[in-house]
Amino acid sequence: MDHLLIFNLGLTYSIFIVYNYFQQNLISLDPLTKINNREQLNIYLTMKMKENHQKKDLYLFLLDIDQFKKINDELGHVVGDQIILKTADILKQIAHLHNCFISRYGGDEFIMVCERDKNEEITPVFNNLQRLFQQSYEGLPDFSVSIGYAKYDESLNYIPKFIEKADHYMYLNKNVKK
Predict the structure, then answer these.
(1) What mean pLDDT comes out for the span 82-106?
(2) Is the pLDDT at 24 greater than 80, yes or no?
(3) Confidence class for position 157, pLDDT limits 50, 70, 90
(4) 118 contacts: CB under 8 Å, gap ≥ 6
(5) What does pLDDT average to over the chain?
(6) Of 33, 40, 43, 177, whose CB is crowded by the most CB atoms within 10 A?
(7) CA nearest neighbour of 49 among 165, 129, 130
């Protein structure tokens, strides 16, 4: 009888762990792309911005899919979702290669956060992003993204300010394309 009780307790605990894992994923991941959501971005940035950055520089990249509304209007939302998924896949590749945090910020906007040793160039990350987004992908119409990035400093003392700086450079990049 005791064995049955221990077995039931173990089974209940295991089910609870699995349930908790799935609940955590529902809370922290974007449902379409399965990358971090905006809430996880806020948690991550809050932690990183509080850390001492004497040894590391913190960079935030903001990416926006160019003319996304037009893609949805002319080609349909299914194609729009496929482009969002491809964008997330490209970011996963870059994040893995450069050890960066990625998240979906909203709609067709994504954020990638990278740490670099002091005086280590960030341009290889930027160049890899641009190169991968300039390629054509089978089954998808050609699409492009505008990218802006900012380096964290003490004047960017809260998250919206940090994102706003990258957003400014992203719009400069977008306006050059027009």
Answers:
(1) 96
(2) no
(3) confident
(4) 54, 55, 56, 57
(5) 87
(6) 33
(7) 165
